[in-house]
């Protein structure tokens, strides 16, 4: 059996087993919202499992992938855990389970925990395949460029989350649209940062032939962030709840940071 097949197979089993255990916890406490925190922590788990399964992998590349994933994942996991404990159950999951036909626990198992486990496994391919022994060995300019991109992503995501938390923590901002700091240049600095991190990790892995096949990971994550569960879902809700959001859309880039546009009153 090729080593990479063994590695991704073990990681798949670990993730599914972990998701089943977390699902049982969600049944006991009556809330699935903490899964968002594990979404981030799960990548750290995969990175460490892969690290120990690939003792013959390139040490420098393995350390680079492990370090970046750990810093990004633990920071985001901690932030999402804090937000859950502060704000309570996520309205998205409440709505999903409220519309469930039949047993809502089965819906949460299949459409929340197992689904996120599979998605996490695919997105994490750069961290998995990038650590498997492959040619050429060593780290060159492409990996360092990827590391720089990932660091930029961590900056955008961390600062964006901090700015939003401060904004929401001020009672005077209730019902208002956040358009300050990084949010002045992109409507989703946190999602943009997320994408930068995983495209950066892909560039580190892509120095090897095997790592090139990990491109499915950042492509899937970017789709999730832009078109499915990230920006698209959030903006549909904000358009309904905040009348000022349409004007914010007209003057602010949707994803990639850009200077604000002049609001002409025409929908972008």
Automatic annotation (TrEMBL):
GO terms for cellular component: membrane. The chain crosses the membrane at residues 6-25, 32-51, 63-82, 109-129, 141-159, 188-206. It holds the Pfam family DUF1295. The keyword Transmembrane helix applies. PROSITE patterns: S5A_REDUCTASE (PS50244). InterPro entries: UstE-like. Keywords: Membrane, Transmembrane, Transmembrane helix. Coiled coil: none annotated. This is Membrane protein.
């Amino acid at each position: 059996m090729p080593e990479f097949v063994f590695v991704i197979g073990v990681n798949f089993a670990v993730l599914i087993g972990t998701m089943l255990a977390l699902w049982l916890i969600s049944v006991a406490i009556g809330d699935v919202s903490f899964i968002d925190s594990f979404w981030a922590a799960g990548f750290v788990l995969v990175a460490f499992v892969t690290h120990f399964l690939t003792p013959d992998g390139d040490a420098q590349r393995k350390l680079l992938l492990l370090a970046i994933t750990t810093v990004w994942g633990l920071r985001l996991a901690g932030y999402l855990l804090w937000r859950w404990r502060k704000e309570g159950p996520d309205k998205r999951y409440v709505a999903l389970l409220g519309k469930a036909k039949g047993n809502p626990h089965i819906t949460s198992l299949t459409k929340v925990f197992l689904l996120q486990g599979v998605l996490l496994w695919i997105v994490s391919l750069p961290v998995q395949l990038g650590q498997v022994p492959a040619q050429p060995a060593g780290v060159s300019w492409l990996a360092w460029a990827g590391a720089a991109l990932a660091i930029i992503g961590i900056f955008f995501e961390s600062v964006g989350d901090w700015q939003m938390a401060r904004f929401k923590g001020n009672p005077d901002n209730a019902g208002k649209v956040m358009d300050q700091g990084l949010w002045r240049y992109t409507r989703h600095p946190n999602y943009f940062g997320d994408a930068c991190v995983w495209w950066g990790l892909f560039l580190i892995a892509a120095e090897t032939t095997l790592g090139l096949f990990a491109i499915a990971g950042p492509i899937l994550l970017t789709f999730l962030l832009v078109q499915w569960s990230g920006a698209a879902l959030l903006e549909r809700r904000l358009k309904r709840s905040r009348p000022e959001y349409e004007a914010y859309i007209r003057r602010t880039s949707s994803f990639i940071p850009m200077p604000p546009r002049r609001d002409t009153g025409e929908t972008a």
